[in-house]
Amino acid sequence: MQVPAYVEYERATSVEHAIALLTRFGPEARILAGGHSLIPMMKLRLAQPETLIDINGLSELCHLQVTDGELRIGALTRHAQLLDAAAAGEHFAILHDAERVIADPIVRNWGTVGGSLCQADPSEDLSAAFAALKATMVIRGPGGSRTVSAREFHTGPYETVVAPDELLTEIKITIRPGGGSAYEKVGRRVGDWPVGAAGAAIWLAGDTIAEAGIGLTAVGAPHFAAAEAEDFLNGAPATEASFAQAGQIAAERCQPSSDQRGPADYKRHLARELTYRALRKALRRARGQAEGERTEAGQSAPEASR
Ligand SMILES: Cc1cc2nc3c(=O)[nH]c(=O)nc-3n(C[C@H](O)[C@H](O)[C@H](O)COP(=O)(O)OP(=O)(O)OC[C@H]3O[C@@H](n4cnc5c(N)ncnc54)[C@H](O)[C@@H]3O)c2cc1C
Predict the structure, then answer these.
(1) 78 Cα: distance to centroid of ligand 1 (angstroms)
(2) In what order do the strands lie in the sheet with 179-187?
(3) Do 120 and 154 touch, CB atoms closer than 8 A?
(4) Spatial distance between the Cα atoms of 160 and 41, rounded to a whole number of angstroms
């Protein structure tokens, strides 16, 4: 039987109280959100915090609303709440695409958006989705709040910019006209972590891509993003050829490793193909076309150029 080491337990009654507890107990204290990542790690003794600071009572971190042109998601929002939120799906379909394929209903009912991002697992789906959307993370500590971009948030596998006395409180995404987004994932079986996955967000100006965001996970992409592929797309025509080339660039610039989920060359193939597919679907959505309806860029890319 796997049993965690002895640990102290504190229940925070407000965000300020959680920060005061983090300050009091120091770097060996850890926030407990849904516990779906932290508790298994403690059972395996991969994590041995001295104190758990439970934030599950903090309703102030559970909001999900559109305010002042932004979608604002509290860090304690459960995966299932994000999946159920019409406002999230309406403005950023990528979030519903991703949530539908994260784990299983049990994990989604209690696991949180903030916990997923702070866990910083290199295969986390939401990290790629928020990278594609160029979201802003709000972090609060003893000195007040600060914001960082999704691209700055993750500093490496299982590492973020959140300091030991800080917590992630909110994720914000600006709502802009002409946008569409999508997420494509390949896993070994239903509810499993991705072998590879790609998220895409595009904002159109007529038939031109005004701005693109591409997030990748499980394929060794720096900061869960495909920055060079985005640069290629910015200002490019919204065509099948542009998307195929962006997929090619994304695949060339990521650094997948071979592991139990698959060989590196297969993951690189997924980075290319899933980027292409996500961009195609994002375009359909940006143009307000029904799911499955085909556009010029909705045709299959020529195999050679994918
Ligand atoms: C069986 C299973 C299958 C899964 N499949 C997938 C999958 O397919 N795709 C996927 O992306 N994920 C998957 N997951 C991971 C799941 O999404 C995460 O375990 C979970 O959502 C993490 O959130 P949590 O609230 O449980 O975090 P916790 O386990 O409570 O915390 C994780 C880490 O984040 C820290 N933390 C939490 N909240 C905050 C905060 N607000 N501020 C600062 N630090 C914080 C904690 O201290 C801890 O270090 C799976 C998990 C399980 C158990």
Answers:
(1) 10
(2) 179-187, 194-205, 208-217
(3) yes
(4) 17
Q: What is the pLDDT of residues 190-236, one digit of tens each?
A: 889 999 999 999 999 999 999 999 999 999 999 999 999 999 999 99
**Cα–Cα distance for residue pair 112/41, rounded to 1 Å:** 16
Asked if residue 303 has pLDDT above 70, the reply is no
At 1 the three-state DSSP class reads: coil
- Residue 287 CA to residue 81 CA, distance in Å, equals 27
Q: Which helix (H) or strand (E) holds 24?
A: helix 15-25
- Say if CB 250 and CB 272 are below 8 A apart: yes
Is the Cα torsion angle 90, 114, 199, 37 positive or negative in sign? negative
Q: Which of 167, 133, 164 is nearest to 150 (CA)?
A: 133
Closest CA to 167 of 4, 44, 7, 58: 58
Q: Whose CA is nearest to atom 1 of ligand 1?
A: 103
Distance between CA atoms of residues 199 and 285, nearest Å: 13
Instruction: Find out whether 118 and 160 touch, Cβ atoms under 8 Å.
Output: yes
Helices 240-253 and 264-286: angle between axes, nearest 10 degrees? 150
In this structure, the residue with its CA closest to atom 5 of ligand 1 is: 103
Q: Give Cα 29 to chain centroid, integer Å.
A: 25
Q: How many residues can be counted in the chain?
A: 306
- If you search the block for the tokens 């992630």, which residue do you land on? 168
Query: Is 305's pLDDT higher than 50?
Result: no
**Please, which residues bridge with residue 203 across strands?**
179, 211
Q: Which atom of ligand 1 lies nearest, measured to the CA of 191? A: 8
- Structure tokens belonging to residue 265: 């060359």
Residue type, 206: G
Pocket test for ligand 1, best of 102, 125, 140, 190 (most atoms within 8 A of CB): 102
How crowded is residue 46: how many other Cβ atoms within 10 Å of its Cβ?
A: 10
Nearest C-alpha neighbor of 96 from the set 180, 33, 36: 180
